[in-house]
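Sequence of Metal-dependent phosphoesterase (Haloferax gibbonsii).
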Amino acid sequence: MHVKILDERVVSRAKARGIDVLVYAPHFVRLPDIRARAARFSDDDLLVVPAREVFTGPWRDRKHVLAVGLSDPVPDFITLDGAFAEFDRQDAATLVPHPEFLTVSLTAEDVAARRDDIDAVETYNTKTLPRDNRRGRDIARETGLPGFASSYAHLHGTVGEAWTEFDCDIRSEADLVAALREGAERRVVRRTGVSHALRGVAEFAHLGYENSWGKVDRLLLSGMEPTHPSHIAYDGRFDDVSVY
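Predicted 3D structure, token representation.
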């Protein structure tokens, strides 16, 4: 909970690492496409759950929020209030990925102010730095919110480097949403050692690609983002909370 890539290699590695449920939430992909791909790669040994990490706010004040259990599409580039309201309307589980990481995250103050609307805070993310993970644990402890772990894999080798063990059976998307929303007992687990540290370094270095060529391709070469609130797919439903 969660990965950004999904193909045969991801599925094979997840199964080899003993993962039973994989949350798939790629950037800038609409929910119907995420859901279709998740269904394609789910089988009796691995459940792939579709999710959306929504980019809220303008580029200079981005705050990412992860929603599991959405029934209707939610675009990026809407207000934080608009995103939380939509997640609540759909009874989705609302999670905080990488709190206080760089300039793309909810702050400790944001989490405290919205504590009643948040179901869990990420306390370990393979991509982020040790100080960021310490801060995530501090925020979870200070707010009394449950934690969760994520490989946050943008690269195949990171799949299965960190995971969350729930003290209950999860056999469907609805089971996962219920476990998150009800605060089910869980344990945050990660691999250790030099190999794990190097995986984290590789993931962090991948930010350079995301914020250079990846961004140029999205903004200048590919036209309007498919998850932009003005896209025809959203039929103007989010015009009142769009930030640009």
